[in-house]
Amino acid sequence: MKSMYKKQLTLKLSAIAVSIMLASCGGGGGDGYYQNGSSNSNSSSGSNNSGSQQATATALKIELDKLSVAATNDTLTVTVRGLDKNKGGVAGANVTLALVDPTNNVSIEGVSTQITDAAGNAVYIIKTPKTSSSINELVKNGFKLIASTNNGTLTQEQTVTVTGSNSTVEADTTSIVLFDATKTSLNVRGDQTTVTLTAVDANGSTLANQAITLRVKNSVLNGVKFTPNATQTDANGQITYTLSFSENQRNSSYSAAQFVLDDLVLEANFGQSTKIYTYKLDVVNSDVPVAVGAIAVAYNPTTMEDTSEGVYYYKNISVQVTDVDGKPIPNQDVTMGVNALAYYKGRFGFVDTSNPTDGKPDEYLPVIRSMCTSPVQAVNVNGEVINQLTPLKKDSTVQVVSYINSVGTAATNNKYTTDANGRFDLKIQYPKIYASWLTVQLTAKSTVSGSLIKGSTSLTLGYLSKDVSLIDLNGPNIESPYGIDPNCTNGN
Fold first, then answer.
1. Residue 418: inside a domain, yes or no?
2. CB count in 10 Å sphere of residue 295
3. What is d(CA 92, CA 387) in angstroms, rounded to the nearest whole number?
4. Local structure of 97: helix, strand or coil
5. Bridge-partner residues for 441, per DSSP?
6. Alpha helices of 355-442 — where are they, by DSSP H?
7. What is the number of alpha carbons within 13 Å of residue 91 lying toward its C-beta?
8. Residue 26: pLDDT over 90
9. By residue range, what is the domain housing residue 386?
């Protein structure tokens, strides 16, 4: 196998920049865990069927396969979810993703408007350039994603941190703020919701005992009041706020129609940070469907385990169920699921990135990497019809991720029950050969007060750096199990 890759070592990185897509390590912890991004999309997860009637979403959620992106030669997989009142997926919604990047360095690969699939997902690939004279500005300020649906009346935003520059300007990656809310649509005449802020660093590690500043945009006009339920983030890096407003609190010069148009925009940052993270709650001029609760699905993005026999990787997952006021619901039955969003074709190489080259490999990088979101076939999973990816390579499958209670102990029907804190912990396992070649969505569903609620999170399967040898030119996932030809229409 070593001879297959020796010829790569004489190539300068710049000379093969056209074929090498340098996927940044989406979270390199002390244990050397890598969760790669993706590149070279050959198909779209949805289509622009503007002529057909579109479904209406109650809220939008933006899921990133990593929390930061490199300024050059990197990609980011973005999943936009159309949600109903209980955060379940809405199929057939027309979703548009826009970029706010004053440097004009970042781009969307493929179409920017898609129709959500059966699970409510629209998958996008964001690319950073090979090089640019304005890279420093991109690193300093990052860029913003804005997703919209319902003919542009419903939007959501996500700030993306950019890392990696040769200048003295460095990205602020120590203070990333993630948002969640028990209710994402609010009645303009008066309403309340509980907002949870999670403090993480660029590797996804939660930050305890941190003070986060929360502001409500236009609070003098809209009259929104909020009460922090703590002064600092807890052991899980979280702090909650209760937001409320009424017609009497709204300024008389600020009409209900204008409040509906502006929506409720939250801004948050760490005390020492200048980077502002925003989150938007939809304000509507009608009765809001009453949500009964929410499910949060989270994973540890910096830590992984592997088996003694060296075949599987493991990752810790945690799920929490709360009511509409953010209070945990104990003894609640939850069913977990896995939905493959995209698979990738290609291979890794051992590349000499030195300048000038010295003939020695110093990076393990994907030299071919192509994202595929088709073909699909409709299948029945637990009474639900979903579109399941069907790779064309013979005997290949995307059904490789499974839930386990602990190493060697399988889950029973993927069903779990929350503890006194409204949560439960579990693991996922997958064969090492699929690491970096599959992006999945972990889903959870439960019935609360007679209503079905759902939650999800997305991730690209990662690998451990200790499994890669730059000396022996070995790795656990050198070639994609779905083929190495970047064309998604064949199995080669």
1. yes
2. 25
3. 13
4. strand
5. 339, 458
6. none
7. 7
8. no
9. 2-182+291-467
Q: What is the distance between the alpha carbons of residues 443 and 427, in angstroms, rounded to a whole number?
A: 13
**What global pTM score does this model have?**
0.60
**Among 48, 183, 201, 19, which residue's Cα sits nearest to residue 110?**
48
Residue 33 pLDDT: 44
Token readout for 103 is 């440097």
Cα(446)–Cα(424) distance, rounded to whole angstroms? 13
Contacts (Cβ under 8 Å, ≥6 apart) of 45: 114, 117, 121, 122, 123, 124, 341, 342, 373
Query: Could you give the CA distance from residue 123 to residue 45 in angstroms, rounded to a whole number?
Result: 6
The answer to whether residue 252 is domain-embedded is no
Would 479 be classed as within a structural domain?
no
Return d(Cα 292, Cα 48) in angstroms, integer: 33
| Three-class SS of 265-316 | EEEEEECCCCCCEEEEEEEECCCCCCCCEEEEEEECCCCCEECCCCCEEEEE
Q: In terms of DSSP bridges, do strands 293-299 and 264-270 run parallel, antiparallel, or are they unpaired?
A: unpaired
Q: Give the E-state strand segments of 352-401 in sequence order.
A: 363-372, 376-381, 384-389
Q: Is the pLDDT confidence value at 20 over 70? A: no
Rg (C-alpha) for the chain, rounded Å, is 23
| Number of domains present in the structure of the chain | 1
Three-class SS of residue 68? strand
* Of 301, 97, 278, nearest in space to 195 by CA: 278
Identify whether the C-beta of residue 95 lies closer than 8 Å to the C-beta of residue 113: yes
**Taking the C-alpha atoms of 445, 448, 450 and 454 in order, what is their torsion angle to the nearest 10 degrees?**
-30
Q: What is the number of alpha carbons within 13 Å of residue 295 lying toward its C-beta?
A: 31
Residue 223 lies in a domain: no
Q: Which residue has the tokens 């050397």?
A: 32
How far is CA 402 from its chain centroid?
19
Torsion on CA atoms 50, 52, 53, 59, rounded to nearest 10? -40
- 406, 316 Cβ separation under 8 angstroms: no
DSSP string, 220-256: HHH--EEEES-SS--TTSEEEEEEEEETTTS-TTS-H
User: What confidence tens digit (pLDDT) does each residue in 243-261 have?
Assistant: 989 888 899 899 988 998 8
Distance CA(147)–CA(64), nearest Å, equals: 13
Q: Distance from CA of residue 115 to its chain's centroid?
A: 18
- For residue 5, the SS3 value is helix
Specify the 3-state DSSP secondary structure of 28: coil
The per-residue pLDDT for range 362-413, each reduced to its tens digit, is: 889 888 888 898 888 877 666 666 778 899 999 999 999 999 887 777 777 7
Chain-centroid distance, C-alpha 176: 14
Classify residue 190 as left (phi > 0), alpha (psi -120 to 50) or beta: left
